[in-house]
Specification:
Blueprint (H helix, E strand, L loop, with lengths): L2 H20 L19 E3 L2 E17 L2 E5 L4 E5 L13 E8 L2 E7 L3 E6 L6 E2 L4 E7 L2 E6 L5 H5 L5 E6 L6 E2 L1 E3 L8 E3 L26 E4 L5 E5 L11 E18 L4 E3 L2 E7 L5 E11 L3 E6 L7 E3 L20
């Protein structure tokens, strides 16, 4: 190649490189990691699903566990004289009657359990749901101690479904709850009337009266506890550790949203609804059940909204933070 030809080729190449370097296909692209301020990055839409609220407890297998029997209505309690059982009762035992507006409301210890003691005085005024008698189950049961902060959630589910699992043993299996969930005072059985001795004279005026018998303490006080019994075919070993799962509430076809989309608690909350233009509007909602992942919206949303995630930041003094399980009960 001649020197002049070489110079022409190199000049064309340089011109092409210069043109390529200066040519632009359009405006410089935005950094995809930096969205405009206020842009909603994550959204969620309400859905419907069945929802259950559960509480986990630890307990152990116990022989002849003690449980409480409550007053069915508010009124005046009148106790019955309960004879000493000669064996495990096969039918309910009448232990008291609560009178309201001249009508009796009977209180029975269920079959398979014996009367333990009176928890209030005879003729005392009682409220509905107050423990008034203790009873002792004849056989094995599972007893779970309850902390004070769980008391109200669990006591409202006295007819809830309980599943039990014996550690390294049988389960899971349904466990039937006995009595009430409450701390029981000591139960007492009244003294039997004193037996009269034969008179020493015609009038009996000189006969000394026998000393009165003191009431027998028939049941010790307990802390907050849940007591349940396993099916007859489940083998139980006294003292074995167990876990219980109690369903405290449930809802079918509930309108739910992720808990991260909600700020608030104790039944009241707020969400940010995203409009078609991307603007957010904070809306009040009424909360229901939650399983820790989603929370039920009882009112405030129709189900067609788009919500910003995370939810709104509430000012100091308002209920804030992630919704806790059971917050809307």
């Amino acid at each position: 190649m001649s020197e002049n030809a070489f110079v022409r080729v190199c000049g064309l190449a340089a011109a092409a490189l210069t043109a390529a370097a200066c040519t632009s296909t359009g405006a410089e692209p935005l950094n995809p990691e930096l969205a405009p301020r206020g842009t909603v990055q994550t959204t969620a839409k309400p859905t419907r699903q069945d929802l259950t609220n559960k509480v986990g407890l630890t307990g152990k297998v116990t022989m002849n566990p003690l449980f409480g029997i409550v007053a069915p209505v508010a009124g005046e309690v009148r106790y019955w004289s309960v004879p000493e059982p000669t064996g495990t009762p096969t039918k309910p035992t009448r232990v008291a009657t609560v009178w309201l507006d001249g009508k009796p409301n009977n209180v029975d210890v269920p079959a398979g359990a014996t009367f333990g003691g009176r928890l209030v005085d005879d003729r005392a005024k009682v409220t509905a749901g107050m423990p008034i008698a203790s009873a002792k189950y004849a056989g094995y049961g599972i007893v779970a101690e309850i902390s004070g902060d769980q008391a109200y959630r669990i006591s409202e589910a006295a007819q809830g479904v309980v599943q039990a699992q014996i550690k390294n043993g049988p389960g899971p299996f349904p466990c039937t709850m006995l009595g009430t969930i409450a701390a029981l005072p000591a139960g007492t059985v009244p003294a039997a009337p004193p037996e009269r001795e034969p008179d020493t004279d015609a009038t009996g005026a000189n006969t000394p009266a026998p000393p009165p018998r003191q009431p027998d303490s028939s049941s010790e006080p307990t802390g907050l506890r849940l007591v349940c019994t396993a099916p007859a075919d489940v083998k139980m070993v006294n003292g074995a550790a167990a876990t219980l799962e109690l369903v405290t509430a449930s809802a079918q076809g509930a309108l739910v949203v992720p808990v991260e989309a909600v700020a608030g608690g104790q039944g009241q909350g707020k969400v940010d609804v995203v409009g078609p233009d991307g603007a957010k509007k904070t809306t009040d909602v009424v909360l229901g059940l939650t399983d820790g992942k989603v929370v039920e919206i009882k009112s405030g949303l129709t189900g067609d909204e788009t919500l910003a995630v995370p939810g709104p930041n509430l000012p100091p003094g308002d209920a804030a933070g992630q919704v806790e399980p059971g917050a809307g009960k």
